[in-house]
């Protein structure tokens, strides 16, 4: 099996000195803000270097691939952070060894929806990047899109699919033979309307409206997938 972008990044971190790694992370942190504000296509190497307080030569010394490599590093790094937070919240609400009581299923799914929604505020810079990735998919390097999916959406999707399968095994859901599709429907139903209305959290909704939309999404999911 080939090495993933995330594992290559992790290996590279162990191969560089702590001082160089600290410099790279400082550059990546500054770049995250610039990419989140400008997007990939509009962000210039000069602006990225200036935000990090380094010369363009220093930037290229740390990221020989220039803007594309730096963007991939930032996307992979932030996606990994959000992935770990999502998995922790998923397991806290739907613990693998403790399926909810049937009477508590809707309550727990609403809690999970709230936990996932809270990530947009907790990781605003990451979701600013995601907004630009969707808007500029035809300009972003293909390897960046692949790295993003491998670092974040794919492992979270697998974990949510496994959680839905456990709920079906516990007799709480009927997934109609495709747990992955059901997991995708859950994510879409709790997030799509809010993402559209808030532009990935840029313009937050009042809390009661957010809660209404989250509850409505869970209710729609259960109408389709609750076990008879």
State the separation between the terminal residues, measured CA to CA: 41 Å
Mean pLDDT across all amino acids: 91
Counting DSSP E segments of at least 2 residues, the number of strands comes to 0
* Unreliable stretches covering 5 or more consecutive residues: none
Sheet of most strands = none
Helix content: over 70%
Per the principal axes of the C-alpha atoms, what is the gross shape? Answer: elongated
Structural class: mainly alpha
Total DSSP helices: 11
Order of helices and strands: HHHHHHHHHHH
Radius of gyration, in angstroms, nearest whole number: 20 Å
Strand fraction equals under 5%
Q: Multimeric state of these chains?
A: single chain
Structural features, described:
It is built from 11 helices and no strands. By secondary structure, it is mainly α. The longest helix has 28 residues, at 66-93. It is elongated and about 65 Å long. The protein starts with a helix and ends with a helix.
Give short descriptive properties of this protein.
mainly alpha, 11 helices
Outline of the structure:
The protein is mostly helical and 228 residues long.
């Amino acid at each position: 099996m080939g090495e993933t972008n995330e594992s290559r990044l992790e290996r590279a971190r162990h191969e560089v000195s702590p001082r160089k790694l600290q410099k790279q992370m400082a550059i990546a942190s500054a770049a995250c803000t610039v990419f989140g504000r400008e997007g990939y296509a509009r962000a210039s190497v000069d602006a990225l270097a200036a935000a990090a307080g380094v010369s363009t030569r220093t930037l290229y010394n740390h990221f020989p691939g220039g803007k594309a490599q730096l963007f991939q590093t930032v996307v992979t790094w932030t996606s990994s952070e959000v992935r770990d937070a999502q998995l922790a919240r998923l397991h806290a609400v739907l613990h693998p060894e403790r399926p909810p009581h049937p009477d508590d299923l809707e309550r727990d799914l609403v809690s999970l929806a709230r936990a996932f929604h809270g990530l947009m505020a907790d990781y605003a810079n990451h979701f600013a990047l995601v907004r630009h990735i969707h808007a500029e998919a035809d300009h972003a390097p293909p390897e960046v899109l692949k790295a993003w999916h491998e670092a974040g959406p794919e492992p979270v999707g697998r974990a949510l699919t496994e959680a839905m399968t456990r709920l079906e095994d516990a007799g709480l859901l009927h997934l109609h033979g495709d747990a992955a599709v059901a997991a995708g429907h859950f994510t879409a139903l709790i997030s799509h309307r809010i993402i559209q209305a808030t532009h990935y959290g840029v313009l937050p909704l009042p809390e009661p409206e957010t809660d209404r939309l989250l509850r409505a999404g869970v209710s729609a999911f259960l109408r389709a997938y609750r076990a008879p």
